[in-house]
């Protein structure tokens, strides 16, 4: 069964989402006005990231800070010697359209150390980086587990391999963690269930506990957009499945998007949220046109569909990704087998970090991450990006349009490299 039995019910749901979105947008504007009462302000924030740059006459640092309500960038001649800081910023030129994105630039005039207890996220970050000597590995694993920013050099490295979406915490990570912990817990608790509480639905309660724990993880990550979309879809799917309702449908993707936007208007400006939603859309698109329930009875067909799906999503995502990140490399095609390797690597590396030996593979990882060079650049115009998105949405109606998406992505990929 579908969640909404008619268009009227869906319309009521959309109206509720619009009302919640409008209220949250108004609250954001009030917060913006309060922030700009004075032309300057002092903000308590954690230093997330620093990047050394070369100016015309001297070097300077680009700093990224995270406060309770937003992330902001600033410039400084010196690198602050603090993780928790009090930053004096000039707010008079800040526009609401920038403030609502949750990430913006503010000129600063003073940065001083703030003597407070570190947040849980900072404690975890320090525990991760303490296990690695190489700064690039510190950034990589911190980004992999805590969604912290990466330096320009590391971003280029992962872009050349085409694994930026693997590093950025998203539904892929949620799925790997969920499946791994679910099966470990199930086989551990199953003997106890058979003896003491056979009347309980073990899968339901393990899933419920895991979603609660994932919600706490989402809070630690400060509601990272891609992971937030994944979590909302996971919870919605869990509720639908437990009630015997249809899970894999475009309507449920729209449901998750509307809920996310209603409660967090900043997602409207998030590239990560857009990529996350588009990736799931392409997965659903393949299932819609090529999914066959009878194929689930054959391991050979399951493996075949999984591989074809990986290839399709890779090609279909090329144009949207290259519009924002135009660097192309032949090594990016290796993201397909690397996705399968990551399913093993992610829980194993997490397990090693829990025991304080997370740097075990650092020598190999640093050589691997720096191996792939940039080999081309895709130059896409805004009208091409918009047109592709329109074509992508229309692919629901025709299978050949879906195949056209993959062909266009393949054409742009090859053209960028020759």
UniProtKB/TrEMBL annotation:
Pfam families xref list: Competence (PF03772)
Topological type in the membrane: Multi-pass membrane protein
Superkingdom as given in the UniProt entry: Bacteria
Keyword tags: Cell membrane, Membrane, Transmembrane, Transmembrane helix
Subcellular location: Cell membrane
Principal subcellular localisation of the protein: membrane
Residues passing through the membrane, by range: 6-27, 161-184, 204-221, 233-261, 267-290, 302-325, 337-361, 400-417
Matches recorded under PANTHER family: BETA-LACTAMASE DOMAIN PROTEIN, DNA INTERNALIZATION/COMPETENCE PROTEIN COMEC/REC2
Protein's name in the database: ComEC/Rec2 family competence protein
Organism expressing this protein natively: Campylobacter vicugnae
């Amino acid at each position: 069964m579908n969640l909404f039995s008619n268009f009227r019910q869906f319309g009521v749901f959309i109206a509720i989402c619009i009302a919640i979105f409008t209220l949250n947008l108004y609250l954001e504007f009030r917060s913006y006005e309060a922030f700009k009462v004075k032309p300057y302000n002092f903000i308590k924030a954690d230093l997330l990231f620093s990047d050394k740059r070369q100016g015309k006459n001297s070097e300077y640092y680009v700093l990224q800070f995270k406060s309770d309500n937003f992330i902001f960038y600033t410039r400084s001649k010196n690198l602050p010697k603090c993780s928790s800081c009090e930053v004096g910023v000039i707010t008079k030129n800040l526009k609401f359209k920038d403030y609502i994105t949750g990430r913006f630039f503010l000129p600063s005039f003073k940065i001083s150390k703030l003597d407070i207890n570190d947040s849980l996220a900072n404690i975890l970050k320090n525990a991760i980086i303490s296990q690695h000597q190489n700064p690039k590995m510190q950034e990589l694993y911190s980004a992999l587990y805590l969604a912290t920013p990466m330096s320009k050099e590391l971003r280029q490295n992962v872009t050349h391999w085409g694994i930026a979406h693997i590093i950025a915490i998203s539904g892929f990570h949620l799925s790997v963690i969920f499946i791994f912990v679910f099966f470990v817990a199930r086989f551990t608790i199953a003997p106890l269930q058979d003896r003491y509480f056979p009347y309980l639905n073990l899968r339901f309660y393990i899933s419920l506990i895991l979603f609660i724990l994932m919600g706490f993880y989402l809070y630690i990550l400060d509601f990272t957009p891609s992971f937030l979309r994944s979590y909302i879809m996971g919870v919605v799917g869990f509720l639908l499945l437990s009630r015997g309702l249809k899970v894999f449908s475009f309507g449920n993707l729209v449901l998750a998007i509307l809920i996310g936007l209603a409660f967090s208007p900043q997602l409207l400006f998030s590239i990560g949220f857009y990529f996350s939603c588009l990736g799931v859309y392409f997965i659903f698109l393949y299932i819609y046109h090529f999914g066959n329930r009878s194929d689930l009875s054959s391991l050979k067909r399951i493996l075949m569909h999984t591989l074809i799906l990986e290839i399709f999503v890779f090609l279909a995502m090329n144009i949207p990704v290259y519009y924002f990140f135009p660097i192309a490399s032949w090594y990016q095609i290796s993201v397909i087998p690397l996705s399968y390797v990551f399913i093993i690597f992610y829980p194993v590396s997490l397990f090693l970090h829990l025991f304080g030996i997370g740097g075990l593979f650092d020598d190999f990882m640093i050589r691997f991450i720096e191996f792939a060079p940039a080999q081309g650049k895709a130059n896409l115009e805004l009208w091409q990006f918009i047109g592709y998105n329109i074509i992508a949405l229309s692919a629901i109606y025709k299978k050949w349009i879906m195949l056209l998406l993959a062909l266009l992505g393949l054409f742009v990929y090859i053209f960028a490299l020759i």
